[in-house]
Specification:
Helix content: 25-40%
Distance between the termini: 67 Å
Mean pLDDT: 95
Bound molecules: magnesium ion
CATH architecture of the largest domain: Alpha-Beta Barrel
Number of helices: 13
Largest sheet: 8 strands, parallel
Number of domains: 2
CATH topology of the largest domain: TIM Barrel
Strand order of the largest sheet: 7-8-9-10-11-12-13-14
Oligomer: single chain
Structural class: alpha/beta
Low-confidence stretches: none
Length: about 400
């Protein structure tokens, strides 16, 4: 009988850690630039709580270029200046301030890069989101892997989408839902948060035309006072509808949450890990909305996503708005999330009449897929983008 191999021989046969000499060469950020691009809406306008409305979104496409000339791309598009504490000119001004502080850093070292950005510029998470997203694109391009693989793996064939229904007359919202059902959507987010009686009519009108398998969310986007939210919730108590972010403050939302049996979604109040953990401790939500730029980029959004998976909290995985590059980032973020925790995502590029990049996911029967190409899998359309508005090297 042959002697068993020694432990030392067995260990020697295993793949060995790379020596210092065999490590990949450093990669350094040499330039950060940005272009502005306007994204008009195919429906003409997008309307939500409190009379807020946008007809043309102001988006910023961010490029991060390495010493070797490899370029990664990101995009940041606030939902106008009156939704979250973010505005389009602020993205560009913030990049001008921040870019010089990350030159020379390795874009693949995403957590180091985020710590550097946080040390150089307090707050302003949406400013950092474009740089972080572009560095994920670079990490993918430099390793030959799609971003969803780097975020943990691709779950399932595709990602189911919801359609946000702009706030108009109740009958028109029902007609719009019917139209988008024909395009394959099975999940709808109604923009409410207006006059409570009209909102009650909106929820009834839309739920009446949907089969029970279709999910309906009434998203008030902070628009109701606490007593209004309670009136609406009681008036639709017999309907299958989720209530999302009814009021402005976390405490108001928590009070409503504790007095209703509707599944409950928090969004605007949850802007980082601290609020996420507090809301979990209070059992303040069943679903949370993680927007990439609200958290400061994909790195922090993935941190929050992974924590939610561990805690059993389902998520809407998206951003505040965007074009093809944001849509690609959402697809990777969502496709790398275990399916039971994917409540919804959205395909912003189908709301806009301008496409700002090639290679982005396109909706098929209410679903989209993350690209299998390295990185985010998108190439900006420079003939559509405006001139460079930030260029720091
Ligand atoms: Mg929301």
């Amino acid at each position: 009988m042959d002697a068993l191999p020694s432990i030392a021989a067995t260990l020697a046969a295993l793949p060995q850690p790379r020596t210092k000499e065999s490590q990949s060469p450093p990669m350094r950020i040499a330039r950060i630039f940005a272009h502005r691009v306007e994204l008009p809406l195919t429906e003409g306008s997008y309307n939500w709580s409190g009379g807020k409305s946008v007809s043309v979104f102001d988006s910023t496409v961010v490029g991060v270029e390495t010493e070797d000339g490899l370029v990664g791309y990101g995009e940041v598009c606030p939902l106008g200046p009156f939704y979250l504490p973010a505005y389009a000119q602020g993205v560009r001004a913030g990049l001008q301030e921040l870019a010089g502080h990350v030159l020379g850093y390795d874009p693949r070292e995403l957590k180091k890069l985020n710590i550097r950005m946080d040390a150089a510029l307090k707050g302003h998470p949406y400013v950092k989101s474009g740089i972080d997203m572009a560095c994920w694109d670079l990490l993918g391009k430099s390793t030959g892997l799609p971003v969803c693989m780097l975020m943990g793996g691709r779950y399932g064939e595709n990602v189911r989408l919801y359609r946000a229904i702009s706030q108009v007359h109740p009958d028109d919202m029902a007609a719009n839902v019917a139209q988008y059902r024909e395009q394959g959507y099975t999940r709808f987010q109604l923009k409410v948060g207006g006059d409570p009686d009209t909102d009650i009519a909106r929820i009834h009108a839309v739920r009446a035309i949907l089969p029970s398998s279709h999910r309906l969310v009434a998203d008030a986007n902070t628009g109701w006072t606490q007593h209004e939210a309670m009136r609406v919730a009681r008036s639709v108590h017999d309907l299958d509808v989720y209530i999302e972010q009814p009021c402005l403050t976390y405490e108001e939302c928590l009070a409503v949450r504790r007095q209703t049996t509707h599944p409950f979604v928090l969004d605007e109040n949850i802007d980082g890990m601290e609020m996420l953990m507090r809301a979990r401790q209070d059992l303040a939500m069943d679903v949370v909305n993680l927007k990439i730029s609200k958290f400061g980029g994909l790195t922090k959004a993935v941190q929050a996503r992974d924590w939610c998976v561990s805690m059993g909290i389902a998520m809407t995985l998206e951003d505040s708005w965007g074009g093809d590059i944001v849509t690609a980032a959402i697809a990777h973020f969502a496709h790398s999330t275990p399916e039971p925790f994917r409540f919804t995502s959205t395909d912003f590029n189908s709301y806009n009449s301008v496409s700002n990049a090639d290679g982005a996911p396109q909706r098929v029967d209410g679903h989209m897929q993350a690209s299998v190409a390295p990185g985010l899998g998108v190439t900006p359309k420079f003939d559509v983008l405006g001139p460079k508005v930030v260029d720091v090297s």
